[in-house]
Amino acid sequence: MKKFLWSLISFITFIVFITSSDVASISDSNYLTIELFKRETNSPEKQRALLTLKYSKLFRRDVFIPLVNEINLDFSYYGLITIGGQNFTVDYDTGSPDLWVPGIQCNSSQCGTHNKFDPVKSSTFVPSQKNFILSYGTGTVISGYEGQDVVILNGISVTNLTFGIALVDGFNTIYEEDGILGLSRQIGQVSNPGLIQKIKGKKVLNHTIIAFHFGRYKLKATDKSFMNLGGIDVSAYIGNIVYNNLINQTRHPGTWMISLHDIQVDGISIGGINSSALIDTGRLYFILYKNVALFQ
Ligand SMILES: *[C@@H]1O[C@H](CO)[C@@H](O)[C@H](O)[C@H]1NC(C)=O
Ligand SMILES: *[C@@H]1O[C@H](CO)[C@@H](O)[C@H](O)[C@H]1NC(C)=O
Ligand SMILES: *[C@@H]1O[C@H](CO)[C@@H](O)[C@H](O)[C@H]1NC(C)=O
Ligand SMILES: *[C@@H]1O[C@H](CO)[C@@H](O)[C@H](O)[C@H]1NC(C)=O
Ligand SMILES: *[C@@H]1O[C@H](CO)[C@@H](O)[C@H](O)[C@H]1NC(C)=O
Ligand SMILES: *[C@@H]1O[C@H](CO)[C@@H](O)[C@H](O)[C@H]1NC(C)=O
């Protein structure tokens, strides 16, 4: 029997993705739906500027070709989380494993506009003597100290989750969300076990499945964004689900990494792609450079 693992389904956009065999009866409706908020930008120039800011450290020079994209103005998606009774918005990020939010002592300008965690206002907070530094693929560096508290995601409560309280928030001011909730199965530097491992341990979900639907700008009025936990909203996609194996888990343990062989734009193949691709809900674009492709 295959090991019972978390599965991730990313529908709409271009790829539907899942692993593991826990999908026998995913068409039932016994799952949770968590609303996602979306940040849009209605100017291609502004969007390009934001992209360059977000990814400038990833690329040594600006490699963005000036495409004018009339419909895809969907910049970021994020949702709610409660830590020690305090509410935050976080990226539900399948590309990383750790949870962090800004701390009340953070004085940097990036922390300025965000909700900040105040340990004093939480009766369940357990401090730790440990500091943390996290760096993300975009070049962002977040640092601060660790603590444990009760974390609630859409009514599911887990105790003693270790999370980061950021004192230096390398997030650029372009981010509306306060922090990041890592949803990969990697061993977290801070949150180990992470929130999804803790939720899995509680056995409250009917299937170990996370699914995302990213509403598109073009369909704004009706196309709500959401994350499903424990099942899939079958009304959110058409056709059949396509299954991909995760690639080399010895080399990339716990990542949602698949093989990518082609991309089509309006049915026309780009071709020549033979690469790994990370299913990363913390990013919103295809990034293709050399042999490496990052999806989402
Ligand atoms: C699991 O399925 C049951 C029905 O079989 C449903 O009542 C329950 O709400 C589901 N749990 C979650 C967390 O979705
Ligand atoms: C946190 O958010 C939840 C859900 O929106 C809300 O019911 C609750 O009142 C909020 N709590 C605080 C302290 O703002
Ligand atoms: C932020 O400013 C306050 C008041 O000036 C200071 O006490 C605190 O140590 C500063 N925090 C950090 C992380 O520098
Ligand atoms: C949470 O951590 C505290 C302090 O480390 C400990 O006393 C408590 O038993 C832990 N609770 C759970 C549910 O693990
Ligand atoms: C997976 O990665 C490990 C470590 O890099 C390597 O030793 C192994 O050969 C790889 N397996 C495959 C099938 O590529
Ligand atoms: C794709 O890459 C893999 C691993 O690098 C290689 O074994 C395979 O032959 C390549 N396929 C094509 C069609 O180039």
Commentary on this structure:
This protein has a single domain, classed as Cathepsin D, subunit A, domain 1, CATH 2.40.70.10. The strands form 4 sheets. A 6-stranded mixed beta barrel has the order 4-5-10-6-9-8. The protein has a 4-stranded mixed sheet with strand order 1-11-12-2, with no helix packed on it. A 4-stranded mixed sheet has the order 13-16-18-17, with no helix packed on it. The N terminus and C terminus are likely disordered. It is built from 2 helices and 18 strands. The longest helix has 12 residues. Strand 8 and strand 9 form a beta hairpin. The protein is 7% helix and 35% strand. The protein is mostly beta strands. It is globular and about 55 Å long. Bound molecules: 2-acetamido-2-deoxy-beta-D-glucopyranose (6 copies). One 2-acetamido-2-deoxy-beta-D-glucopyranose (NAG) binds next to loops.
Question: What's a concise summary of this model?
Answer:
The chain has about 300 residues and is mainly beta. The protein has a single domain (about 35-250), classed as Acid Proteases (Cathepsin D, subunit A, domain 1, Beta Barrel).
